[in-house]
Amino acid sequence: MSPIFQNILAAIYMILSFGSGNRFGRKLHHHPSSRLPVKGVYWPSWSETTFPPSAIDTTLFTHVYYAFLVPNSVTFRFDVDNSTAHQLRRFTSALRSKAKPAKTLFSVGGAGADANIFARMASSTSTRKIFIDSSIHVARTFGFDGIDLDWQMPQNPKEMDDLGLLLADWRAAVRKEAFPAEPQLLLTAATYFSADFFLAEQYRAYPVAAINENLDWINAMCYDYHGSWDTTATGAHTALFDPKSNISTSYGLRQWIKAGIMESKLAVGLALYGKTWTLDPSSYGIGAPAVDVGPGSGTLTFNEIQRYNTKNNATVVYDNATVSVYSAAGTSWIGYDDPTSISEKVKYAKELNLRGYYFWAAGGDYKWMISKQAKQSWDVGYLH
């Protein structure tokens, strides 16, 4: 190759490199699999006796999350006992040995974890490093493809800033650990349904630039908009739209996009469960007066809902305004999603050019009805 031609190629490379910036005016590091769609599901580790990981149909999912591990509240390291170690190995082995293997990630935290652990850990360089190094060690030891952070939730602007620092340190460590032989571990995070906590007493917003730069994608938790914490009225806990408020999936996703998230970094959360209330049977629409939680102490899986509706000859209503479903039998009311409403949510996410979707949680579906419909809607269209 002549020196002149080499110089021309070098100039072209520089132009392309400088032209690959994003909306924030800087070049992003594009991580492996950054263009592959996400069809994820979280597997609750406490459900192993009733729904082992081997029961997951990996033809329907690209990524399966182990939920959850929590770091030590003092050392910030992961103390994996023998029982948990065996379970982690069973999890990754079961999903890796499928005819169509799924990528595996372990999720850190969850709704039951103490959020202060993460706040303290993320507050200094040294404690972040301890946590990060331990998380990478766990991932490699047990054969995971990635790590997911489910910090529920950063409580103030400083904790959001610290989250941004954590993500940057984490990505740097993952990149360094992988070079040159290993593929980089995936890094994801479960987040609030919106980019900002617009209803909170103390306003705060996620570090979107740090997310774009350092995470493969985020899982926006677009569910639990209503539930047992408010027994005065029924509600669509997975509403795609809400004519009366901004507490809806459409609002949350658009707030993320408005805040600058790259669409390829955003996956919509879908629920394989419903919320229940006890009410006056003379009024049973969405927003009807309620007096208490309903069957299942306020929550039923879609599988349980199907059986409940059949057993009690429930009235089932599809609500176009919220794109959700509810059923009523006597004084019991259940709000949830069915294959039709899930299809509309998945198509909405695809129209926004999002990365994909995920479900909470594995084991909640009925004969994989919803999971199959979600995949079909993403890949082709409505499955009749």
Automatic annotation (TrEMBL):
GO biological process: carbohydrate metabolic process; chitin catabolic process
Pfam families: Glyco_hydro_18
SUPFAM superfamilies: (Trans)glycosidases, Chitinase insertion domain
Highest taxon, organism lineage: Eukaryota
A GO cellular component entry from the record: extracellular region
Residue span(s) of domain GH18: 37-381
A molecular function GO annotation: chitin binding
UniProt-listed InterPro entries: Chitinase_II/V-like_cat (IPR011583), Chitinase_insertion_sf (IPR029070), GH (IPR017853), Glyco_hydro18_cat (IPR001223), Glycosyl_Hydrlase_18 (IPR050314)
Keyword hit for Glycoprotein: yes
Keywords: Glycoprotein, Glycosidase, Hydrolase, Signal
The keyword Signal is assigned to this record: yes
Family of the protein in this entry: Belongs to the glycosyl hydrolase 18 family. Chitinase class V subfamily.
PANTHER family xrefs: CHITINASE, NOD FACTOR HYDROLASE PROTEIN 1
Protein name: GH18 domain-containing protein
Organism of this sequence: Cuscuta europaea
